[in-house]
Amino acid sequence: MRTLLPYMKKYWIYAVLSPILMILEVLADIIIPYLMSRIVDIGIANQDIDYIVRTGVIMILSALLAMAFGVMSAHAGARAGYGFAAEIRKDVFKKVQEFSFANLDRFTVSSLITRLTNDCNTLGQVTMMSLRLAIRAPFLMLFAVIMAFKINSSLAKVFMVAIPLTALGFILGLKKARPLFRKMQSRIDRVNAVIQENLIGIRVVKSFNRQEYEEKKFKERNDSLRDAAMEAISLVIMLMPMLNLLIYSTIIAVLWFGGQQVRIGNMGSGELISFITYITQVMMALMLISMFFMQLLRGIASGGRILEVLGTESEIKEIENPVKELKDGSIVFDHVSFKYPGSREFTLKDISFHVESGEMLGIIGSTGSSKSTLVQLIPRLYDVTEGSVIVGGVDVREYDIKALRDQVAFVLQKNTLFSGTIRDNMKWGNENATDEEIVRALKQAQAWEFVSKYEDGLDHWVEQGGSNFSGGQKQRLCIARALIKSPKIIILDDSTSAVDMSTDAKIQKTFKEELRDVTKIIIAQRISSIRNANRIIVMHEGQIESIGDHETLINTSPIYREIYESQEKGVVGE
Ligand SMILES: Nc1ncnc2c1ncn2[C@@H]1O[C@H](COP(=O)(O)OP(=O)(O)OP(=O)(O)O)[C@@H](O)[C@H]1O
Ligand SMILES: [Mg+2]
C-alpha cells in the first residue's frame, strides 16, 4: 500500500483536512448528551427555565456545528478518495499503454478493464471511507468513554466487558472475511471477461445463434459471483445483530446498576440518560471500525491487483542510447526462432532470409503457419527467443521503440478504427498530417473513392471499431492510416483480404509506382496479391518451406503450386 501513497500527493490537503474536520464534528457531537444531562439534572430539577433555554441553544449550536463539520469533512474525504483513485487510474492506464503484446496476453484485456474501473473505484471509495471512519470511530469511542467515566466511573466499568467482547467477535469475523473478498474480486474478473467478449463479438454471437449458450455461460459466472458476494456479505450481516444484542445487553446492565445508583442518590437520572447515549456511541464506533476493516479488506484486494499491473515491466526493454533512425528499409532474419510467452513449442523455427530496401516481399502459407508471428518481430511487438532480426543494418533491440514503430508501419490482421472522424483516425499515423497528405494516403490505399463520396468527406464519423464501414473499406482506411506515417517499411498482414480483386490490383500498382523506396511486406491468401513481389516466402508449420519469385516457386514449391492451381481453377470455375 505504501507504493500507492505518492498518488495522494496532489490531494494531501484534503486527506489531512477530512480527518481534522471529522474530529471537530465528533467533539461537537459528543458534547450534546452531556448538555442534555445538564438540562435534566439541573434545569428541570430546579425548574430553571432560563438555564434550560441557554443550554438548549448551545445544544442546537453544537448540532449545527457538527453538521457543518460533517459535511465539510465528507466533502474533503470524497475529494481525496476519488482524486487518489483518478491519479492511480491515470498511471495504470499509462502503464497498460506501455505493455508489450506479451504482457497483454498474460493479463488479458478484460482483467485489465476490471482493474482500471472496478478496482480503482473500490480503492477510491475505501480511501474516502477510511479517512472518515478510521478517524471518526476511535475518536468517538475515546471521547465517549472519557465522558462516561466522567459521569460515573464505577458504572463505566461495563465497557471493560463490552469492548473486548466486541473486538474479539470482529477479529474472528474479519479473519474469515478476507479470503472471501479476494474470491469475490476474481469472480468479478470472470464475469467481466464474458461481458466484454460478448459485447465485442455480439454480432458473431447473434449470427451463430449462440445467445443461449452465452447466456448460460454468463449465468454460471454471474451466479458464482453472487454466491461469493453473499458468502462475504453474510458474515457482515451476522455481525450486525450480534452487535445489537451486545448493545442492548449493555444498556440493560447499565439500567440495572445505574437505576440502583439513581435510587440511592449517587447519580442523576439525566446522567443515566446521557450515559446510555454514550454507550450507544461507543458501540456505534465499534460498528464503524468493523465496517472500516471490511472496506479495508476490499481495498487491499483491489490495491493488490492494481499494484500487480503497476509493478509489471514490459518485457520489451529499451537499451541506453538507442538508435533513433532507420538507415534504410532492409531486413535480415538471422536464424530466428520464437516461442510465445507461456507456450512450450516454438512457433517459428530457424528462420533466415533477407529483403533489400525498397523490395516487395510476399508471404503466403496455410492458416496457422505463423505468418503473422513472423512479421510481428519486425516492429518488435514481440522479442525473438533465439537469433536476431536486423532492420536497416541494426538489431531491432537496439532501436528506440517509438522510432522503430514510427518507421515500420504495420497494418495488423485484426485491425480496428477508433471512434472519431476519418481525419482523427488518419492522424493516428501522423499527428501533423495535412488534409492533402491524408487525401494522398487515402488515394494510395484506394479509399478515397468512397471517402470522397461522403458529403462531409474527412469529417465523416467513424463508429467505435469502425463498425459503420464494410470490411474492405475498413481495411483500406487502415492501410491509408499506415501510409500517412511515411514509413521506411510497410507490412500488410492479410490487409486486402476483404477488398475485391480489381481494387487489390490497384493498391498493388500504386504501391509499386509510388512507394518505390519503401520496403513492402505483404501477407496474403491470394497468389494474385503477391505474384509481382521480388521475393515470396512460403511458410509451413513455422518454417520457411521455400523462397523465391513467382516463376521459381511454381516450379520448385509443391505447396505454392498447389495454392496456385487451386486458385486458378477457382477463377476458371467461376
Ligand atoms: N498471442 C499468442 N499467444 C500464443 N500463441 C499464439 C498467439 N498468437 C498466435 N499463436 C499461435 O501461433 C501459431 C501461428 O499463428 P499465426 O497467427 O502466426 O498464424 P498465421 O499464419 O498468421 O495464420 P492466419 O493465416 O490464419 O493469419 C498458431 O498456432 C497460434 O495458435
Ligand atoms: Mg495471420
CATH third-level topology of the largest domain: ABC transporter transmembrane region fold
Sum up the overall morphology in one term. elongated
Strand order of the largest sheet: 6-9-10-3-11-12
The number of distinct structural domains comes to: 2
Distance between the termini: 67 Å
- The beta-strand count equals 12
Q: Profile the largest sheet.
A: 6 strands, mixed
Describe this structure in words.
With 574 residues, the protein is an alpha/beta fold. It folds into two domains: 2-310, Up-down Bundle (ABC transporter transmembrane region fold); 331-414 and 488-573, Rossmann fold (3-Layer(aba) Sandwich), CATH 3.40.50. Helices cover 63% and strands 10% of the residues. It contains 17 helices and twelve strands. The protein has helices spanning 12-44, 49-98, 101-107, 109-151, 158-200, 202-207, 211-263, 269-310, 371-376, 401-407, 422-426, 435-444, 448-451, 471-483, 501-514, 550-556, 558-573, and strands at 331-338, 348-355, 360-365, 386-391, 394-395, 408-411, 420-421, 461-462, 489-493, 519-523, 535-540, 543-548. Strands 6-9-10-3-11-12 form a six-stranded mixed β-sheet. A hairpin with a 2-residue loop joins strand 4 (386-391) and strand 5 (394-395). Helix 16 (550-556) crosses helix 17 (558-573). The longest helix is centred in the middle third of the chain and has 53 residues, at 211-263. The mean pLDDT is 88. Adenosine-5'-triphosphate is lined by residues 105, 340, 343, 347, 365, 367-373, 413, 494. Magnesium ion (MG) binds next to helix 9.
